[in-house]
Recover the amino acids of this structure.
């Protein structure tokens, strides 16, 4: 099973404000039964959130090291074709552009699930089921 990780899963690894979510994120990353996928968008969003929005932000060096470790996973690049597909998904499913880009990256990389808090859990869009792993 291929599972796509949204940014919030990675952020919780470094967010000490909610220890339960932090542990759940660690469990997801440690689960070797699933092939974990993310996109270059997720890497960029993680860097911004981790260095600017956490109660205790990561240093630039620590954020770069984290991104480097996440890059060991399967990373879907964002290209013009994916951007155009996301534009169609915005219209078709009434999602934000950024959520549509996540959905399209997950679908294009063959994922069966997206792990996120940001979309309607239980829905299946473009053949990908939305799962909130923190419920």
């Amino acid at each position: 099973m291929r599972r796509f990780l949204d940014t919030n899963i990675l952020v919780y690894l470094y967010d000490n404000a909610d220890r339960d979510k932090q542990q759940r994120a660690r469990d997801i990353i440690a689960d070797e039964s699933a092939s974990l996928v993310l996109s270059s968008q997720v890497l960029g969003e993680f860097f911004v959130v981790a260095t600017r929005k956490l109660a205790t932000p990561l240093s630039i060096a620590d954020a770069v090291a984290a991104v480097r470790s996440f890059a060991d996973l399967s990373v879907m690049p964002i290209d013009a074709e994916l951007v155009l597909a996301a534009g169609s998904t915005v219209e078709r499913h009434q999602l934000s552009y950024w959520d549509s880009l996540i959905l399209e990256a997950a679908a294009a990389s063959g994922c069966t699930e997206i792990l996120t808090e940001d979309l309607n859990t239980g829905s299946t869009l473009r053949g990908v089921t939305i799962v909130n792993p923190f419920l």
Observations:
- The longest strand covers residues 35-39.
- Residues 76 and 110 are 10 Å apart (CA to CA).
- Helices lie at 7-12, 19-30, 40-52, 60-70, 80-93, 97-108.
